[in-house]
Every structure is written in structure tokens, then in C-alpha cells.
From TrEMBL:
Residues 383-400 have a biased composition (Low complexity). The lineage of its organism: Bacteria, Pseudomonadati, Pseudomonadota, Gammaproteobacteria, Lysobacterales. This is Protein kinase domain-containing protein. It comes from Pseudoxanthomonas taiwanensis. SUPFAM superfamilies: Protein kinase-like (PK-like). Residues 361-400 are annotated as: Disordered. The chain crosses the membrane at residues 339-359. Residues 363-382 have a biased composition (Basic residues). InterPro entries: Kinase-like_dom_sf, Prot_kinase_dom, Protein_kinase_ATP_BS, Ser/Thr_kinase_AS. ATP binds at residue 80.
Length: 400
């Protein structure tokens, strides 16, 4: 469905003023985010083509979402209006349409369905199913971290939905608690494929200009390496959600986006059990594998992650076991080969130096002649060699 008009100036002039007119009739350019914050008490601003905007539900990196009534089909929907910042008009339109087309291909009970998209008064939009429930971000803000089994069940459901999307060639690339909605039945639904990319062979076909939300971005979204952007990027995003479900905190967070990105690039991730020592080791190991810095060290696909979470829930052995100290050291050295090599070389040199010093001191002690006149020295040497002197005799009692 592609309702609404295109960019005919005459047609726009014939219409009553809508959101674009209320914002200063910016046409055919797209509106800045603040211009999409409409006064819904004004009937003219509520009117949006086939839709009547009724309530602001939230905002994201690419637009503002409203609850709306679709007149032609007599139903309530959620409608997302495009914000242009921080891209140019053409880039914003292309990204927005790609999001709608990608998500419209996905028909899954745990993915928010897309009903249609189009343009009205120079504003790009798409309509989707209205999920009557809070986002996972809202649930965390109110209730705090989840019980381990509850978090594992939710993670498994989202992983299965992601695997479905990946099999149809769609990456999400902006997974975070705010993009997982909780329906009335308590089931999660993945929304907002705003950074979606087509995937082939596990890698994004068009990975240029990939961005994301700093606290939930994978390292390769910041610094693409030889592995590039791919299925493993969404695995990291789901791992970041699982981490916050268990700890109440995202993997990396700082007062500003720039400092958060610096932590992502150089920081050390705290293990979930540092926050909650009672967390099961197997669940922590699953979470940490999702968040491995190198894409090749994560789960190969979302199906493998869902299976491991299922094993945990069933009390069976998971495929990834908790790392011991030696294994963690080995992984760190693989991530930081130069620094790790330098530290190992320094430790080895120290050990060799101490060993030589000990051997040299031991040789000198063996070659040193015994010192004469030292009280008790001869007796101690005799005892050490196993020789004993004549037995001591007690003096006989007097008078015998």
C-alpha cells in the first residue's frame, strides 16, 4: 500500500494545511525532528491523509511514531513520520523506504508487521501494526533486571525472529531494548528496521554508512574490519539486549555518545556476574559469546544462539562453556597481539632472570668450604649426612 500524494506543488496547495504546513510548509524537503512534534489538539495537525494522528508514542533516530486511526480500513495503527536529520533529503528518503520495504517482507509473529508506506505533504511515512504494550526499555526502567530464566526465554524468542529475518536476507542493525515491544500476550516483537540492510552469505551487501545506537553497536559498526557487517552484528545487538536484561545496564555507557563510542573501541566489558554474582555461569557464557569483540568468535547465526538458550532453559549442557583464567588470557592476547606479546616477553625475561640468579646462588653455596669453629656446625653436618655420634650415657647413681 502506498497511499498519499507525491510532490505535486499544485496538489499540495489545494489541500488544507497539515503537519508540513504547520511547520512552515517545507516542501519537498523533509522535516527536522522537532517539526514532527505536532500539537494534536489542533485538528489540522491531526489530519494526515488517510490517517488521524491521535497520540505520540515515541521517537527514534529516523522519525517520530504516533498512534493513528486509518479511515479507509477502520483500524488503529502506529504510523512513523520521517525525520531528515542527520542525512540529506535524498538519503533520508532512500533509507526510510528501504526500512519499510525490508520490514514489509517479514511476516512473523514476533516481528511488527508493516501495513503500508507512502508520502503525504512532503513527509515520508509508513504504517505498522499497533502493539499495545510497553517497549523493553520501558519495562527495564520500571522493573529493573529480569530473572535469568525470563531473560533467556525472551532472548530465545527474539533470536528465532532474527533468524527468520536473516534467512530472508534482512539485517536489523539497530537492536536495542527500545526496538523490542512487549505485546498484550507478553511476547516480544521486534520493531524498527531503520538501518536494515540486505544480506547475502552472512554479510551485508551494502554496508556503507552503517550507524547505530552507541550503547548497543557492535565494534565493526564503528570500525569495519575484514569481517565487515553481517549476521554477527545482529548477534552482538541481541547479546547487548540480553546483557541489559541480566544486569540492568547496557554493555557500554557514558555521559555522551562520543565517550560511549570510545568505550566501545577501547573499553573492557564487565562480566554480568560482576553485577549479579548469582547469575548462572552458562547464561553468562552465552551472553559473553554474543558480545565477543571479533565477529568470528560469536555464534555463527541466530539459530545457534536460540538453541543454546533453549539448552540452558532445559537444564542441558550448552555449547559454550565458561572460560577459565588461562582461556580468557589467550582470548585477550588474540585481540591485542602487540601488547600481549610485549607483556609475555617481559614476563618471560623476568622468569629467566630469576632462574639464572637462583642457579648462580645455589652453585656458590655448594662450592663454599665449611666454616670452622662454628658451634654446633659439625653436629648439624653429621645429622644431615646420617652419621650419629656415640649414645649418651646417663651417669650411674652414687653409692651403687
Amino acid at each position: 500500500m502506498n497511499t498519499g500524494s507525491g510532490g505535486d506543488p499544485a496538489a499540495c496547495a489545494a489541500r488544507p494545511p497539515g503537519p508540513a504546513a504547520a511547520a512552515g510548509a517545507i516542501h519537498p524537503a523533509f522535516l527536522p525532528p522537532e517539526a514532527l512534534e505536532l500539537d494534536l489538539s489542533d485538528p489540522q495537525q491531526r489530519d494526515f491523509g488517510d490517517y488521524e494522528l491521535r497520540e505520540r508514542l515515541g521517537a527514534g533516530g529516523m522519525g517520530v511514531v504516533y498512534r493513528a486511526w486509518q479511515r479507509s480500513l477502520d483500524r488503529e495503527v502506529a504510523i512513523k513520520l520521517l525525520s531528515s536529520a542527520p542525512w540529506t533529503q535524498d538519503e533520508a528518503a532512500a533509507r526510510f523506504r528501504r526500512e519499510a520495504r525490508s520490514a514489509a517482507r517479514l511476516q512473523h509473529p514476533n516481528i511488527v508487521a508493516i501495513h503500508g508506506f507512502g508520502s503525504h505533504d512532503g513527509i515520508e511515512y509508513y504504517a505498522m501494526a499497533l502493539v499495545r504494550g510497553p517497549s523493553l526499555a520501558r519495562r527495564l526502567a520500571v522493573d529493573g533486571p529480569m530473572a535469568p530464566r525470563q531473560a533467556a526465554r525472551l532472548g530465545r524468542t527474539v533470536a528465532e525472529a532474527l533468524h527468520y529475518a536473516h534467512r530472508l536476507g534482512v539485517l536489523h542493525l539497530d537492536l536495542k531494548p527500545g526496538n523490542v515491544l512487549i505485546g498484550e500476550n507478553g511476547e516480544p516483537q521486534v520493531a524498527d528496521f531503520g538501518l536494515a540492510r540486505h544480506v547475502e552469505g552472512g554479510r551485508a551487501v551494502d554496508p556503507d554508512e552503517v550507524s547505530g545506537t552507541p550503547s548497543y553497536m557492535a565494534p565493526e559498526q564503528l570500525d569495519p574490519g575484514p569481517d565487515g557487517i553481517g549476521v554477527a552484528t545482529d548477534i552482538y545487538g541481541l547479546g547487548a539486549i540480553l546483557y541489559e536484561l541480566l544486569t540492568g545496564e547496557p554493555p557500554f555507557h557514558a555521559p555522551t555518545p562520543a565517550r560511549t563510542l570510545a568505550l566501545l573501541r577501547h573499553g573492557r566489558l564487565r562480566r554480568p556476574r560482576r553485577y549479579r554474582p548469582d547469575l548462572p555461569l552458562d547464561l553468562e557464557a552465552i551472553c559473553m559469546r554474543c558480545l565477543a569483540r571479533a565477529p568470528a568468535e560469536r555464534y555463527p547465526d541466530a539459530h545457534a544462539l536460540a538453541e543454546d538458550l533453549g539448552r540452558f532453559l532445559e537444564g542441558r549442557e550448552v555449547s559454550v562453556r565458561p572460560l577459565n583464567a588461562v582461556q580468557r588470557l589467550g582470548r585477550w592476547i588474540r585481540r591485542e597481539p602487540k601488547l600481549g606479546g610485549a607483556i609475555l616477553a617481559a614476563v618471560l625475561a623476568l622468569v629467566v632472570g630469576l632462574a639464572r640468579r637462583w642457579c648462580s646462588g645455589s652453585g656458590r653455596r655448594r662450592a663454599r668450604p665449611p666454616r670452622a669453629g662454628r658451634p654446633g656446625a659439625a653436629r648439624r653436618r653429621g645429622l644431615a649426612s646420617g652419621r650419629r655420634g656415640p649414645p649418651c650415657r646417663r651417669p650411674a647413681p652414687a653409692g651403687r
